[in-house]
Amino acid sequence: MADNEWKEVAKTDDIESGAFTSVELSEEESVLLVRQGTELHAWEDSCTHVGCPLSFGHLADGVLICPCHNARFDATTGAMMSPPALDDLARYDVREEDGRVYVGGRHEATFKKPQGHDKRTVAIIGGGAAGGMAAEQLRREGFAGRIVMVTPEEQGPYDRPLLSKFYLASDMGPEDIALRPASFYEKMEIELWTGRRATAVDAGAKRVTLDDGSELTADAVVLATGSRAKALPVPGVDLGGVHMLRSVGDAAAIRADAAEAQNVVVIGASFIGTEAAAYLRGRGLDVTVTAPESVPFEKAFGPEVGARFESMHRDQGVAFELGTGVSRIRGSKRVESVELANGTVLPADLVVIGVGAEPVVDYLEGSGLLEDGAVPVDGFMQTGSPGVYAVGDIARVGGGSDSGAGNSTGEAKRVEHWVVAQRHGRQVARSIMGTREPLEFAPFFWTRQFETSFGYIGYAPRYEEIRYKGDVAAGKFLAGYFENGILKAVGTIGKGKTAVRYGLLLDAGREITAEQFEAGLSSIGA
Ligand code: FES
Fold it and tell me: pTM of this prediction?
């Protein structure tokens, strides 16, 4: 539609205050009309993450929440408030006349490198979810100084969750999963130092030593080194055809071997393992998943949800050997089989190991920043050393009385999830720029396997009780995870909108009992 064209799309009375509605401009283009008080706004009805319709989502307190992966947008400004979306919403001109609503031209949301003289340098050590978000959010917040992002990878930030999903089943290249094209970092004047890693940090001097012997001194240092895949301590892990899955190089190597393979053994039945199994099965390979648990995700989500994942995989032809460990991986130069602790031998010409991750913090030994293998920070991502921040998987956030951690329990949390790391990146940039707002949203993550998405909102590592609403076996349910009788997290397949509403209550620190959960949202006035 041309800039100067207006199209009548709705009646004024159709859109109440605090509500939204989607209208079609054409077969391909929908617009979300949102009334906030007396103001009417028109936004693209397509989340800037991967395009889910926001009209299927939720509007609460002036915030639009995407139903797919919980990105949040300010309903008044269109600004991205929470990843995994990176960009603000495109805006449409909108006007009301004689009881009718008209929509006009579309305006893309863009931002530019701020101008001005700022002699400060921010060094970001790590180029993953948290580091990448920190760099670009600094520019959004108006930081005009120097930004250096150091990454051991050969490219800038990319969409790591895709590696164990579509990437394995497709012929995507590394550039297809880049979060931003290389030109973005050039335009934003974000220096990408690829192929380098930190070896030491002098926190007091805000100085980082790199593996080529060079040193980087900055006004603010953001430690964002993330995790590495945990090793499996059994003989044979060095054989050809045996892979971990963490980097784009790992995924490319798995894909290359998958082209020649028929029998795949996946060791580990958590996210990486089950996702890799699903997508390799999607390539027509014979896949067996083995793990010590009795069902996938047993500890994280409970046996019923785990059984649902297992039956979904079995229906698609994935085999399981559960309740046993791996003794060794056999072969001469390349893998030929996997021997399990129960004596079973599984033929294999490709093995994917997904037995967890551990934070990359070796370079922080002796820095005074480490505590129990992680870096304690407050809710503004500040370590105990002024001007040094930590974000993402290595950061243990909150726990103090004035932590700014913001959400329901106030306890210190170290969470290894993509969206949480991105939120940390956004938070640290705002913190460096002087904004003191709490990290307000409950953790969120999702997995997608065989066209089924499971979403989880909250933090319940020590849950004692699970209550279910809906039918877990049928794959449409909401699970509530309780500790000391209070709801700490919800997990869902097929009830994302309801889960979002519980997530908002968790954000607000509401204490919801199992009985209230059973009675439903209306019983607690939500
Ligand atoms: Fe909206 Fe992913 S499509 S958060």
Answer: 0.94
